[in-house]
Amino acid sequence: MKKLIWIISIAVAFLFTGCFLPEKFESKVDIQKDGSYTFSYDGTIAFAPALKKKISAKDEKKLKAMVKKIKKDPNIKDAKYLGNARYQISMLQKKKAGEKAYFFDKRANLISVVPNGKSITISTKKLGKRDLAAIKKLNFKVDGKIVVSIPDNMKLEGTKPDSTPTLGFGNYEWNIDSFDKDINIKVVPK
Asked: Strand, helix or coil at 19?
């Protein structure tokens, strides 16, 4: 129990530096013709160190208290503790052309949107073998989706989407069902 409390203290001190895992979510990037965009995340995240063992009532209370720290991020529109080391998160960032965006932040970088000149790269964090092995030991599953909409003056390169617009309507979508799935999308002018 002392170890869990120590881990929670570290996590609070360095909020969102890689201790959280996305679980069930939809993340959207809506790019405009001028290069500005909105970036959102709606879904659950789990505090990985607490997934290893049964959580005591005292530790559950500390995990619940972390919601106050999470809500300090101005991009977080809503955060709720669901119990069992899981949180419901709603994040929205509105960015001008050329501005970078990260979920949660640059250190955690679970999903990033990084403009470079006239192109924009959307990618997921690439995990190392050690991290992937640790997640596998937790028997933790991810069930997510990245949805991207682009204007008609741009095109996509990189990771092939799982679904594409039909007859010019709809979005590009990538299903995330594994932490070793590497998503690297580049949006470029036509």
From this structure: coil
| Phi/psi of residue 103, nearest 5 degrees | -115, 120
CB atoms within 10 A of CB 187: 24
9 alpha carbon, distance to own chain's centre: 22
Expressed in angstroms, the distance from the first to the final Cα of the chain is: 56
| b (16+ CB within 10 A) / e for 106-134 | eebbbbbbebeeeebbbbbbebeeebeee
Q: What is the pTM of this model?
A: 0.85
Structural domain that includes position 156: 2-189
Q: Residues 12-23: pLDDT tens digits? A: 333 334 588 899
CATH of the domain at 117: 2.60.40
